[in-house]
Amino acid sequence: MKQIERTRNLGASARADPAFRTLRSQCFMKGVTMATIDKREYLSGKISYRVRTRLKGHPQQAQSFPSKTQAKQWAGKIEAALREGRYVATSEARRHTVAELIERYERDILPLKPRDAHNVRRQLAWWKSQLGELRLSHVTAASIAECRDRLLKTPVRNGKQRSPSTVVRYLAALSHAFSVAMKEWGWVEDNPLRKVTKPKEPRGRIRCLDDSMRDSLLKACAASSCALLHPIVVLAISTGMRRGEILGLHWSQVDLDRERITLHDTKNGERRGVPLVGFALTLLRALYQNRRTDTELVFPGSRVDRLLQFEKAWKAALSKASICDFRFHDLRHCAASYLVMNGASLSEVADVLGHKTVQTTKRYAHLAEGHSKRIVAAMNEKIFKQAD
């Protein structure tokens, strides 16, 4: 990096120097940054150092500092960013506000994420109300952390405090918007949320039914006024499928001959194959024989254009079976727990349930202790028996 130091008195003569003009022209034609540092003295006695950098194809960047050392450090940082291809014009960050970032994100990016667009839009609306008028260049980790703490303390409609998991999702929504602005739009040089600590989330909920409770629930579902409730619950326990995956299931996704269900639109965006066996397979074969011809849905609602509504029937079945504090999604936890307790490895459970990483499945690790003990005992018996 070529640095030319000039005082206020020598600035004009330096600019008139033919050697200086030739060097500056050569650097600009080659696309090389050239930083100049001007020393400025004010009538009050205050001294500042103004740095200017140029790069072909980019507007001039300028910044003032109280010391020459800080000026040189800033110039070096800009030059390093240029060499590594990380250069982002700071003028863009000064030109746009957080509100403009969120509005463009909602217009260009959010339509590509239809699954959780509604929740993300609501979360971004909150950030817009808090930081909307702030220039992107003024957004810091400290300002976001302050909003994070405020969000944690602000109660929701029912008067309860927001959970750490909810706040993490709010942070994730804004973080993705900043990441897009950094990588694709060139509006910011860095994502300030990388430096913000996320609230510690509690361990994932595990609610599993024992054999007697499961049998009572299945009997109550079989006797329900909603004829589809029983096969829905059996399918959830048998496969670990999510509620949305079950209700949106079409017959074209069900291969009764190969005993397999193919899910194209899953939570993590990946296609997943689900084994269809046992009692669930028997029930679906019976449903197929008596399926409706006006819809392709496996579990259709009363109207063709609507999904099945079974919440009342589900709550009635839980009440009849005397089961409290149990949600439909807990059937997925039941499936995972039953798999682990019957010898499945965590990676196998992750594959069946469609977990992207085994970390999510580790919440069921304690259920595999008995199975692990049998494996270790078998290994020890074989090894030390040979030693004898």
What are its keywords?
single chain; 388 residues; alpha+beta; Double Stranded RNA Binding Domain; DNA polymerase, domain 1; hpI Integrase, Chain A; 4-stranded mixed sheet; 3-stranded antiparallel sheet; 17 helices; elongated
Give a brief outline of the structure.
The chain is α+β, with helices and mostly antiparallel strands and 388 residues long. The protein has three domains: 3-87, Double Stranded RNA Binding Domain (2-Layer Sandwich), CATH 3.30.160; 95-195, DNA polymerase, domain 1 (Orthogonal Bundle), CATH 1.10.150; 211-374, hpI Integrase, Chain A (Orthogonal Bundle). It is built from 17 helices and seven strands.
In terms of per-residue confidence, which ranges show pLDDT below 50 for 5 or more consecutive residues?
1-15, 26-32
Binned, the helix content reads 40-55%
Q: Give the strand order, joined by hyphens, for the main sheet.
A: 1-2-3-4
Q: Indicate the proportion of strand residues.
A: 5-15%
Shape: elongated
Q: In CATH's first tier, which class of the largest domain applies?
A: Mainly Alpha
Radius of gyration: 31 Å
Give the helix tally. 17
CATH topology of the largest domain: hpI Integrase, Chain A
Total count of domains: 3
Task: Characterize the main sheet.
Answer: 4 strands, mixed
What's the total number of strands?
Answer: 7
Terminal residue distance: 74 Å
Give the overall average pLDDT: 80
**CATH superfamily placement of the largest domain:** Intergrase catalytic core
The helix-strand sequence is: EHHEEEHHHHHHHHHEEEHHHHHH
Q: Which structural class best describes the helix and strand composition?
A: alpha+beta
What CATH architecture label of the largest domain applies?
A: Orthogonal Bundle
